Amino acid sequence: MQGRGLVHFILRRLAVALPLLLIISLGVFALIHLAPGDPARALLGSRPSDPATLAAIREQYHLNDPFIVQYGIWLWHALQGDFGRSIQGGQLVMSAIRQRLGVTIYLGIVSAIIVLGLGIVLGMIAAFRRGSRLDRAVVMVGVLGVSSPSFVIGIFLLYLFGVVLGWFPTFGAGRGFLDRFWHLTLPSLALALSVMAITVKITRASMIEELDKDYVTFARARGLSVARITLAYVLRNALIPVVTAAGLIIVGLVANAIYVEVTFALPGIGSLTVAAVQKRDIPMIQGTTVLLSAFIILLNLLIDMIYTLIDPRIRFGRVAS
Amino acid sequence: MTLPVVIREKAAARRRFLPFGILLAMILVAIVVACAILPSVIAPGDPATQRLLIGDRPPSAEFWAGTDLLGRDALSRTIHGARTALVGPVIIAASAFAIATLLGLLAGYLGGAVDSAIMRWVDFMLALPGPLVAIVVVGVVGGGYWTAVVVLVVLFTAPDTRIVRSAVLEQRPLPYIDAARSLGIAKSRILFVHILPNILPIVLAYVVLDFAFALVNLAGLSFLGLGVEPGTPDWGRMLFENRNILFSNPVALLLPATMIILTAVSMNLIGDWLFERLTR
Question: What is the pLDDT of residues B189-200, one digit of tens each?
Fold first, then answer.
């Protein structure tokens, strides 16, 4: 019964995720035709244009075939990791992405740890000291975080720690593990601070709600220690809404990573995407966009599965989600 | 550490009619609105005048916020930038909620196939990585500021529809709806004359919150060089253009950056406060 419910749940989630990926890939492919002007010219980029080259490009990208055939061929190549070559310099899209993946992953993981770790702890403290000055300070920082985009936070951090104090470098990603850590401290902080507001706000609200419940009163009456009540009962229940918001947190991290990479001039996927967008380098945009979207959707799928493990009600289909 | 005893009424008693923080936020927004309406009156100089021989200088008696790489007055540019910072977000928040109110009313009240069609679309939109979509579409399609406004309206409509729909669903089982229906009042009249006024307070509070979010998003696109046209005085664009003068005249960056945060924080505080007041 339990196993079947889980399989059913995962299948249902896949039934949403796969069509979504397909629709996104269709949208990304259609970008060639969305760009103003002739797609062949757009794909030509800065290369000199003459009828022969244009015809060659039409042939190479199958632009003379019906739209759906073009899409099919493109998707087939994309599934094998082949997004063609950048129109700027002709580098393979996939190899450009591979070169820059490391910085983005590093940035994402460090920020995710801060967002979840510090965010949950701050939310808990605020909930415990509800109504106190500390609580109001945390809430205010939360409003500030929601209102401050990562690039604005980044600029303030750059100015304070890079220019005034001179503790951290103001651009680049560094070489080697320690140097990279030193270079990516400010970017990770800028990224984490703008996304952390979500975790703090949700943890605080759900923690306050849980602390109010009968089982907490009962556990106290039984004489259980505060640490035990908090960690074994309250936190487990209070974190469910945080997991629900995980999708929001992931999109927030990815989107803000793009801005942070541009702010700190880091060679990552985000700055690659922005540079490609600014130059209308369509194959490159297609590659990075498909990759980032697929990453977000698959991670969401994974979280949905974790979700069923911590909240049995969903496993048994009692909660409509 | 002891578990807190939660007293619900305590927080309510402390709530004043107009808290000091909200008053400050309103004054700040009023100043920004004034700058947006009459920038040339308020600004000390012309935002576009270039002084290439001066270049980027730190603040002085003549230019209070210094100058940028082209020698343009950063303070005047910031004051003129209030216009693009307000107009776009106002349009985005208002039109996204106008569309969302219509869709949400229909979905929530009619239910059935209409509801599931609208909500299927909402679920799809919410599953998209919105900020990435905005960057790519605005960048590839071109058109700058107004394309960005349209794309953000589309992206904002989905979550707003969900909010309106759940507000409508709360109203549906109430007796006044039954009364109106038993009187034989037309569906459209029930929707727009009976339900709409009851959900309007929630909508209003969310419009203000949406404004803050739209401001941050639009500034972000301009920061990437995708929003406003080059040369337009705009807070996001100033951050884009002045990134490299962080050492020579940091004020040209920090001033618009501060304005983005202050305006967004103020609108968020006002929105939260309205929400508390209007929904209790």
Answer: 888 888 999 898
Burial A4-36, CB ≥16 within 10 A → b, else e: ebbeebeeebeebbeebbeebbebbbebbebbe
Q: Is the pLDDT of residue B101 over 90?
A: yes
Nearby residues of A130 by Cβ (< 8 Å), 6 or more positions away: A208, B4, B6
Given a contact cutoff of 8 angstroms between Cβ atoms, the answer to whether A209 and B3 are in contact is no
pLDDT in tens, A229-273: 888 888 888 888 888 788 788 888 888 999 999 988 888 899 999
Interface of B with A in 128-157 (CB under 8 A): 128-132, 135-137, 139-142
Give the number of other Cβ atoms within 10 Å of residue A275's Cβ. Answer: 18
Whether pLDDT at A45 is above 70: no
Q: Are A148 and B259 in contact (CB under 8 A)?
A: no
Cβ of B136 within 8 Å of Cβ of A289? The answer is: yes
Distance from CA of A32 to the nearest CA of B (A): 9
**Residue A282 dihedral angles phi and psi, to the nearest 5°:** -65, -45
ipTM above 0.85, yes or no: no
Nearest CA in chain B to A150: B220
Question: Does residue B59 carry a pLDDT above 70?
Answer: yes
Whether B115 has its CB under 8 Å from any CB of chain A: the answer is no
| Chain B residue with Cα closest to A216 | B3
Query: What is the rounded CA–CA span in Å between residue A19 and residue B28?
Result: 46
**3-state secondary structure (DSSP) of residue A226:** helix
- Across the strands, what pairs with A88? none
Cross-chain residue pair B135–A277, CB shorter than 8 Å: yes
Best CA proximity match to A44, nearest among A61, A28, A22:
A61
What are the pLDDT digits (tens) for A290-317? 888 888 888 888 887 777 777 666 655 5
Tell me the whole-structure pTM to 2 decimals. Answer: 0.84
Residue where the block lists tokens 């969900």: B162
pLDDT at B156: 93
* Cβ contacts of A259 on chain B, cutoff 8 Å: 220, 223-224
